[in-house]
Design a protein that fits this description.
mainly alpha
Length: 228
């Protein structure tokens, strides 16, 4: 027996005529109560056998409450949730007793950190300040490899300490004065080459002989004597 013949047989058993008559009743049922539809013998199982699906009945106007009373099992949709973050591999987890931030705060020495496999690069990546790393004993050479010149200047390093790693023009550009540069051992000629102007060089405290040697003007030396 074909599906069509099965549906026609059901409609005859229900006394509702042919399939066209069944469809008319179903369309009318949208406006009627669930009990009226059930009174016609149209339960969820019969409607399914006749080829009417839950989604199809919803499309022609049947409400969830009506369909539930007719015997349909209503789908319960689980609300979408954000995907669970991927677990951190055990090898990448930082245990509290090995967290560089905690260890630096406690005052562990660089050697102690290195014995645990913790590098200065890892410390910086975790946001540990250069001041804290210097405080626990990392030397300037190690800091230079990870931190910028402005960061090191803010840390309190002077031109004498920094000049093995940075050129004089860079030191001038971050704001070191002529006086600081003279104290670091730079000559008048060095400061001229680095871009300092004559008045800045005069303010650095070089002697008249040093100024004359580099061809600075008499007026410039007069400015120095006047305290400008």
């Amino acid at each position: 027996m074909s599906d069509l013949e099965k549906r026609e047989k059901i409609s005859r058993e229900l006394g509702l005529g042919n399939l066209t008559g069944i469809h008319s009743i179903i369309m009318e049922g949208v406006k009627e109560s669930p009990s009226w539809i059930l009174g016609k013998g149209l339960t969820a199982s019969k409607l399914t056998d006749l080829g009417y699906t839950l989604e199809g009945l919803k499309k022609i106007g049947y409400t969830d409450s009506t369909l539930k009373l007719l015997g349909f099992r209503m789908e319960t949709r689980t609300p979408k949730t954000a995907p669970e973050p991927s677990p951190i591999p055990e090898s990448e987890k930082i245990l509290p007793d090995k967290d560089p931030r905690v260890l630096v705060k406690k005052g562990c020495t660089p050697n102690e950190l290195k014995q645990l496999g913790i590098t200065i690069h890892e410390c910086k990546r975790l946001g540990i300040d250069a001041r804290d790393l210097f405080r626990i004993g990392f030397d300037l050479m190690e800091l230079v490899g990870e931190f910028t010149l402005p960061e090191l200047k803010r840390l309190g390093f002077n031109p004498r300490e920094l000049k093995p790693f940075f050129d004089g023009r860079a030191l001038r550009d971050v704001g070191f004065s002529g006086l600081e540069m003279r104290c670091a051992g730079f000559s008048v000629r060095d400061l001229l080459n680095f871009g300092f102007n004559e008045n800045q060089i005069i303010g650095a405290g070089y002697s008249t002989g040093e100024l004359i040697k580099e061809g600075l003007s008499r007026v410039t030396r007069d400015f120095r004597s006047l305290g400008h």
